[in-house]
Amino acid sequence: MPTRFRALGVVLAATLCACSALAADDDSVSFFRAVNTDNADGVSRALAKGFDPNALDEHGKPALILALQMESPKVARVLMDAKGIQIDIRNQAGETPLMMAALKAEVDSATALVAHGAAVRKDGWSPLHYAATGGSAAIVRLLLSKGAPIEARSPNGSTPLMMAARYGNEEAVDALLAAGADRTAKNDLGMDASAFAASAGRDRLAARLKPGAVAK
């Protein structure tokens, strides 16, 4: 083959590769735009064409976690039902979809994730920590009913009750106490739930949580 034809072939191949890459980039942009705007039809069309439901956006966020973070519940349900979805996929911070739903206090999404088999147990920061932080007593009770450990410990030894106290989520506090959470437990810094509440200026809640205090 003459040199000029070989060179032309190389150019054409490179052009085709570049076009394919651009098309893939366009597909990704369209998909994640649909995720961000709760465009369930757009996401469904992309999945029908073979788009990976576990794809990561440009910041490394999995589509399902992003949908929950952006409060796109219809897209989240489409992704949960997608073939091949990793229901416990993690982001770069080690968070799972269930943790994000719990943090956002999205009861319906959390319930659906659990129904799809999402793990309620996790070493370190757990879904129950996030539910306590998000403040949904309903999600707290849901996770406990599915076997989430009530005294789960974060990397620094903090419990869900401590997180609920820190953020002043009294309904979550009440749900945890009703289920037997230990108000005397301390983390690695020697802080109990009462100290967490006090550190955030929540003096009334801190008084309620002091060991030996009478439950409200």
From TrEMBL:
The keyword Transmembrane helix does not apply. Keywords: ANK repeat, Repeat, Signal. The lineage of its organism: Bacteria, Pseudomonadati, Pseudomonadota, Betaproteobacteria, Burkholderiales. Residues 1-23 form the signal peptide. ANK repeats lie at residues 123-155, 156-188. SUPFAM superfamilies: Ankyrin repeat (SSF48403). It comes from Scleromatobacter humisilvae. This is Ankyrin repeat domain-containing protein. Pfam families: Ank_2. SMART domains: ANK. It comes from the Bacteria. Coiled coil: none annotated. The keyword Transmembrane helix does not apply. Gene3D superfamilies: Ankyrin repeat-containing domain (1.25.40.20).
